[in-house]
Amino acid sequence: MRRLLWWFMAVLACVAAGCIAASAYLTFATLRSAQQEAFDARFALAAQRAATAAERALALGVALTDQPPLQALLEREATLEPAIVAFGIASASGQRLLGHTRPPDGTRATTLLERPVRNDLGQTVARVQLRYDTSALVSAEQQLQQAVQAAAWPPLLAVCAAALLLGVALSQRLTSQSHRAPSGGVVPAGHLGLARWPGGLRAQLTALAALALCLGLLWLGWGAHRAGQALIQPVQLAKAAAIARSSASLLEHALAVGIPLDALVGLDTHTSALRRDNPEVADLALLATDGRALHRRSAGAASHAAEASAASTTAPAARAPVVHAGTHLADVVVVLDPGVLARKLQTTLLDMAFLGAVSLLVALELLALALGSRGARALAATEARQQRLAHPQAQHAPWRSTSAAAVRPALFLFMLSEELTRPFLPGWARQLAPQTWGMSAELLAGLPLVLFLAVVALLQWPLAGWSERHGRRAGFLLGALLSAAGLALAAWSAGYGSFLAARGLSAVGFALVFVSGQGVVIDGSGASDRARSLAQFVRAILVAGLCGPPLGGLIADRWGVPSAFAACSVLALLAASVAWLQLPPERPTAARAAPHPGTAAAGLWANALRQPGLLALLLGCALPAKLLLAALCFYLLPVYLQDSGQGSAMIGRLQTIYPLTMVLLVPLAARLADRWGQRSAFVLAGGLLAGCSAILAWPAGASPTGLALVLLGLGLGQSLSIAPQSALVADFAKGAPTGHGAGILGLFRLVERGGSALGPATGALLLPLLGFGPALATIGLGVVGASLAYGWHLRRPGHPNRA
Known about the structure:
Elements: H1 2-59, H2 68-80, E1 84-91, E2 96-101, E3 110-118, E4 124-133, H3 135-180, H4 200-256, H5 267-277, E5 281-288, E6 293-295, H6 301-311, E7 317-324, E8 327-336, H7 340-390, H8 403-419, H9 425-432, H10 441-470, H11 472-492, H12 496-523, H13 530-559, H14 561-582, H15 599-610, H16 612-643, H17 648-676, H18 679-695, H19 704-735, H20 741-770, H21 772-794
Helix pairs in contact: 1-2, 1-3, 1-4, 1-7, 3-4, 4-7, 7-8, 7-13, 8-12, 8-13, 8-14, 9-10, 10-11, 10-12, 10-20, 11-12, 11-14, 12-13, 13-14, 13-17, 13-19, 16-17, 16-18, 16-19, 16-20, 16-21, 17-19, 18-19, 18-21, 19-20, 20-21
């Protein structure tokens, strides 16, 4: 048992360490992006200033080749900024007109920046070309990388040390329990430590790992923020100095044409534009040489802050002199916002928190794969022994290996292989879309997904019967291999037609794996634990859906979409290997004898008509639940948020709420539904809660917080209903005549897939007519009405689903 315990802790420690390492990379990427943006921006400002001066000369009818003031401007900017290697203006044909060039240095790494010079008609007649040295940026990035690494090592080592100490403590606790409880002895509950806590040993260890991981991520975030402030603020100050010089140049031009400083207009507009384009700029003020504010914004408070900051030697501000006729008249002061970097890191920290949750969920799936049935039996035996020692009078059910535990690792790996494609599949299809098919690129981008869902929906019914006749293990293996072949074909597809064929082949494999995995769970469970077993089946799918998209997007961004499809194919092959190792071989039975053609369909409909509870369950609960989920999460939410100007990061974080809620609560709801024998009540309550949550989207508004509450309510409602609903359908299948059970399960999945297909179509129909809130509320009203109809059917005497 100690070896098993150490293995458990090693997996948790490795996953936690990997999460901290990935979080450190995300933090470094965020800080590097802010650093590079601030570094490049000051050269872009200089180039734009030169382009504006050239356009003014052209407006006055002065040729660019006869521009001593413009030549002086180029030389002055190059002198003020040592990183500028070459700064000049070239004609549209590339001929050099004006410029300043430093002596060449072959060791420098440089970047060319261009800005167009347009005439009054908007035609590009010349280009400002600025080549600058990036060696300072490379050096700064290296320092930033070292600082983030230095900030990441302490929490990483602390998490590993915490896992080591926890393993030692638990090992000693198990040893002391063995000595305190000889045969027939009883150990007081107070001496059992973790045994007093709810959830079992695995849940307790996972909770402690989550606590250690949260503390480690907070430590990393604090250290990265300090490193970022120390290394990025000088770069931002250099950018602020460039903004100040650019603004001072505009003021000097106004003075040159006879406009005094006290008669200036438009400074508020100029400041507002700067703050909009440069979020790190808090304010811009014009101060006299004695520190008095010559110009204040209408609000006043920000300029007072700028005046105070300018008087301080430690304030994050930069200034540039305004000189006219050789006299220093004033200073332009650009004040930086010290909290802008913290706000950028807050978004990264939020992503790190989601990554931590995902990492722990992946750890549990890896543990299920690593431990196997023997390890799970040993761990469960230890938990049961602890409970018997603490409560010797209580009755404890013996542990038995479930079919869901056997199929769950392979199912998770297979579903993960498909979920990895979600972030890049539409974009890749758009890139491959031909122009000769007579359809828009948007329609062709969605066609592979439509084809996939249609094939899965249509084949689940017949493939359920095939799997029942030929064996669940054989069906799972064949489906995983077909999907792997389809994903590999997608990786090598150079045309749209072959890509569609690849997605169709993967859809056949997906449908076969799904019905075979579900059949394994149903065949190996009894009436007392069917909902709990199906909850494990659903949880594996939800965890894959939670973990797949961010990982797939990372692979596609770093190594390309074909490499991502190849990785998905490898995962599908790994799922087939795990299924071959863990799923037991099946023996042919009489129940798998092939029925007469047409008998299954006719018997299915006859059986459904004789049992109105099945139709009420399918039409009142299964179809509306999937319709609402698909309409909100797949269509209405991303479309509305994109139209509202929200980024993909916000959309992704909101979409994580639903699967995360389901992953955490589906097992609990399934366990309570089995214990209380109230599956129908759970299904009804879940439908009502999900529908009411959608209705509240209208009065609650469409803010991110309101949408988060709507998604939370949807997740809570469907977590109550999804496993008991599947268990009720499984009961119908178990009670059906021989050969009809697979058809009932196929019909259930067909109805669910049909609801998923109707959801986006319904949302697309209602959104332009009603708007986001009313459209979602209308769908929610339909879900509530369908749930109430199902509840009315439950009141009928002798209804088969009353329990």
